[in-house]
Amino acid sequence: MDIAATLAQARSLSIDDRMRLVEGIRDSIEADSEDLELTPAQREMLERRLAAHAANPDAVVPWEVVKAEALARILR
């Protein structure tokens, strides 16, 4: 696969279509993630983040806010 050519094709899409493409790629990775093994460093980081979330579950930013802020940065 030619990643550069694929990226060039993606750039021709609208921003909304590119966002849907990214979401689709993310979903496909999630679906295949059962085959992936975490490294010890990744597992440690995940455990730290889960512990931090358990200690302060209200310290989150909703996806809608993250997405809106990312789009605002792109569209400046």
Write the layout of secondary structure elements.
Layout: H1 3-11, H2 15-32, H3 40-55, H4 63-74
Structural class: mainly alpha
Summed up, the helix count is 4
Rounded mean pLDDT is 93
Report the end-to-end length measured between terminal Cα atoms.
Answer: 32 Å
Rounded radius of gyration (Å): 17 Å
Number of strands: 0
What proportion of the residues form beta strands (DSSP E)? under 5%
Helical amount among residues, as a percent range?
Answer: over 70%
Largest sheet, in brief, is:
none
Inertia-based shape: flat
Order of helices and strands: HHHH
Number of domains: 1
- Low-pLDDT runs of 5+ residues are none
Question: How does this model look, in words?
Answer:
This protein has helices spanning 3-11, 15-32, 40-55, 63-74. The chain is mainly alpha-helical. The chain has one domain (3-74). The mean pLDDT is 93.
Give me some keywords for this one:
mainly alpha, 4 helices, single chain, 76 residues
At a glance:
With 76 residues, this protein is mainly alpha-helical.
